[in-house]
Amino acid sequence: MRERWRLPPKRPVREAFITWITMADGVRLSVRLWLPENADAEPVPAVLEYIPYRKQDAYRAHDDAWGATLAGYGIAYARVDVRGSGDSEGVLTDEYLEAEIEDGVRIIAWLAEQPWCNGKVGMRGISWGGINTLQVAARRPPALAAIMPMGCLDNRYTDDAHYIGGALGHTNFQWGIGFKLVMAGPPDPAVVGEAWEAMWRARLEATPPILRTWMEHQRYDDYWRRGSICEDWAAIDVPTYLVAGWQDTYSNPVGRLLASLHCPRKALIGPWGHTYPWAAQPQGLDWAHEEVRWWEHWLKSVDTGIMDAPMLRALMPYRAPSEVIPAEIPGRWVAELAWPPQTTDRVFRLTDGALSDRAGAPETVSYVGDRLVGLTKPEWLDRPPVEQSLDDARSLMFRSPALVEDIEILGAPVLRVRIAADRPVASLAVRLVELTAEGESWLVSYGLLNLTHRDSHAQPAPLIPGEVYGIDLTFAATAHRFRAGSRIGLAISESLWPLVWPSPEVVTLTLSLGEASTLSLPVRPVEASPAAFDIPELHTTPSEGARRPATTTAPISPGVYRLELESSPTPALIKATGTTVSRGRHEISDIREGEPNSCVWSHKATSHWKRGDWDCAVEATCELTSTTDQFQLTERLTATLGGAVIFERRATSQIKRDLV
């Protein structure tokens, strides 16, 4: 039996220092480096994290902690600001631009050429950093030996913060306003010197009305294909370790990546949200053990045995997260040797209000989408769903009999239905819930499809009112144990608000029941004994004031609903630099039930940096409204220096609705 791998002894670390890497066009990128103290005499591999999130302040605590950790175990760590962000030169005008990815290739070559590097480089990161890790890897830099993308995606249109099932996502605007502050933020004069103000003004001038750009591409076109690695899976040929959390929307692509890549690959999905596994509260992992083991294996040619472990390790939750938050989610770690896993489809037929093992008589049932559904699942990311009974009561519900034994699922449920709509543009929204013996309803997974995208996100086509279409709708991948005594519930509605913008008109959906419509659950047999799990777990006490998630569900006046989210600016001192940073956010979503074009989304985000006489602030706002055939979008960007406005730009756009 192989001896259990252990972390190597800790080594002294050379304190982080800033240097510059010059790109092919002369633009210089700012990098912080952490090196083992003796790396010049005994070269080591390097690991790159490459994001636009300000290494001098916003990401400094993370970088300090992880740089010291990796360097302490004999692996150099490089944190680079994407061009036009933080302290790097140039301008940033969109996500994952060609220049950014080519810069990444050049950074890797530069790292490999350093006298303290053994010539092997790894790349890792979460969210933006995980997404561009995959894109850079697809360029096959010669020195790139392995990657660890976390919270990442394979398709920019279907799985990033823009469109959800072909419908316009609320998260598109939450992210877009925050992204404007990233593009328009000032460099630090302590790093770049007297040129900082000219650099900042250039960034402000270059910052585009990015929401208009994203809304001008309402279908999967060449704009979204750029950077979507699903267009060429074979381009990635380096060992890949995928990491995600079940509460993170970005966990959904993990199964597709495991199934479609052909390089050495692994994945781990924990119980957390959109965060690193070591930062998860209240249950995380001692990730240094696993990550150093990965890099030692692929960057130092040490046989750590990591590839002997199963392809996928995932937590099998015994409760829906929102049912137990802020406490730990009960469950166990399960293992799969390959993907897709060895599951068996449990098929339920949709009958009159029931999920049945047998098909009922052929019949139809109609649902009028004039009721507001979605208040219990308001966000795509970062705001957990709440108890679902309110939305269940406004949905078309199908319930199984009470379960006589536990059922565990792993993978993506699928709904197959024959459906008609009375309007040319309509959506189908579904929620899979556990209906407990105590009378509560907890979200397990959900799915949504703009039915004009039924055949293709690239070439949508209007519905013919009254015509019946066969639809396969895949839910978000999940793992969950349905408890004995509970019922499985399927909730169907025409939309989820404010998760997505509503259809142009109130829609009536008509479903064919009997053999025509089924729900398939990927049932995983319970193993005889739990899988071995050798990553140390971290357990913490929930912070004071932590509580179960909540959201506003009552109307502010008859039929009128408002969701408001505000995070007031709270100054935080970055002790290492003496900079005080504050960020704020305010968003309002309004709608009148039964009037889809009464919807209004408005957002504001602010950032403020101050150190002595250096006093910079940026504010971005937007507002979206619609008619049946057009969106009206207003975007504004304002910057102040020492309290005085130095830049202001407002853009108003009329954008045709493209079957959305």
Keyphrases for this structure?
660 residues, 10-stranded mixed β-sheet, 7-stranded antiparallel β-sheet, 34 strands
Sum this structure up briefly.
This protein has 660 residues and is α+β, with helices and mostly antiparallel strands.
| Beta-strand residue fraction | 35-45%
User: What is the molecular shape?
Assistant: globular
- Helical coverage, percent range: 10-25%
| Largest sheet properties | 10 strands, mixed
CATH architecture of the domain at 13-166 and 219-336: 3-Layer(aba) Sandwich
- The secondary-structure class comes to alpha+beta
CATH superfamily of the domain at 13-166 and 219-336: Alpha/Beta hydrolase fold, catalytic domain
Q: How large, in whole angstroms, is the Cα Rg?
A: 25 Å
**Termini, distance in Å?**
58 Å
Walk me through this protein's architecture.
This protein is 17% helix and 37% strand. A hairpin with a 2-residue loop joins strand 33 (630-641) and strand 34 (644-656). The model has no long low-confidence stretch (mean pLDDT 96). Among the domains are: 13-166 and 219-336, Alpha/Beta hydrolase fold, catalytic domain (Rossmann fold, 3-Layer(aba) Sandwich); 344-523, Jelly Rolls. The strands form 7 sheets. A 10-stranded mixed β-sheet has the order 1-2-4-3-5-6-9-10-12-13, sandwiched between helices.
